[in-house]
Amino acid sequence: MSRFSFAIVALTLASLAGWRPAVAADSGSLSMVVMDPLAAPLSCPCVEGYAQRDYEVLAEHLESALGRTVQVTFAESLATAMQKTGRPADIVIGKQSVVHSDATKVDLDVSAICRLTDLEGSTDQFGMIVVHRDDPARSVGDLSGYTIFFGPAEAEEKHSAALQLLSEAGISVTAERQKISPACSDGACKVVDMGPESRAAAVISSYAQPLLEGCGTIKKGDLRVLAKTKPVPFVTLFAAEAFDRDELAKLRTALSTVAVEPTVLEALESLVGFLPIEDSDAKKKAKS
């Protein structure tokens, strides 16, 4: 689907929703936890126009549409956020696989309802297996015996998707050669520092590559991308099961109208805002 057609679909969804802001009396505040690694408080301003998503603007949009105060909390984990707020989260926005994992840990029932498009209209990310620029490996099949720095298990693109890619290439990574690096920068720096003869590789997130070079963590050209994993869902918005049917319908409508709010789109660094899960998955199947 072209960008133009994609935008038209989103605009049509918003139009059909018949949305008009109707601010009612505040019936209780909503707690919105943001774990998106591209949110401004969780990222760095090293790359102009990238990874500086302003979710306070989205909160204002939702407040206007729902007639309820929205309190935004930024955190790298759901447990940390809930410790800050002292209450369960009503809305959670972050990597789909990470939110699923964190919600289980804190026993919070949430449902994924939509995904945020990036500036290209995509709702996906992928993992990238990288090696030192002078490493002799030229394909995933050359990584036999390599030490590989994976992301934690909850980071699907840096863990399970990468293991699947290696398995499909006939590469089995023994337990002692599987290292875990919580941050993309950790694994990337280790591969650079260990040198081309170390037989080491790292798995980084596709969204992190511009930041590693832009922030000076590594120099441009220090690493070479050997392979990419299959696409996996990226930033997903979850609603707590505590929402009743009418409240959830209002939330879905408010999110669909982001597509026709240029200020909100700019703040979220998004082409057409949020896509319902079913539309996002259909778009992915059409590409495959």
Short account of what is shown:
The protein is of the alpha/beta class. It has ten helices and 13 strands.
Word description of this protein:
- The protein is of the alpha/beta class and 288 residues long.
- 35% of the residues lie in helices and 21% in strands.
- It contains ten helices and 13 strands.
- The chain has helices at 3-17, 55-66, 78-85, 96-105, 160-168, 184-194, 209-214, 245-256, 262-267, 277-287; strands at residues 30-34, 70-74, 91-95, 110-116, 124-125, 127-132, 147-150, 178-180, 200-205, 223-228, 232-233, 235-240, 274-276.
- The strands form three sheets. It has a six-stranded mixed beta sheet with strand order 2-1-3-12-4-13, sandwiched between helices. The protein has a five-stranded mixed beta sheet with strand order 8-7-9-6-10, with helices on both faces. Strands 5-11 form a two-stranded antiparallel ribbon.
- Strand 7, helix 5 and strand 8 (178-180) form a beta-alpha-beta unit.
- Helix 2 crosses helix 8 (245-256).
- Residues 1-8 and 11-26 have low confidence and may be disordered.
Helix and strand arrangement:
Layout: H1 3-17, E1 30-34, H2 55-66, E2 70-74, H3 78-85, E3 91-95, H4 96-105, E4 110-116, E5 124-125, E6 127-132, E7 147-150, H5 160-168, E8 178-180, H6 184-194, E9 200-205, H7 209-214, E10 223-228, E11 232-233, E12 235-240, H8 245-256, H9 262-267, E13 274-276, H10 277-287
Parallel strand pairs: 1-2, 1-3, 7-8, 7-9
Antiparallel strand pairs: 3-12, 4-12, 4-13, 5-11, 6-9, 6-10
Helix pairs in contact: 2-8
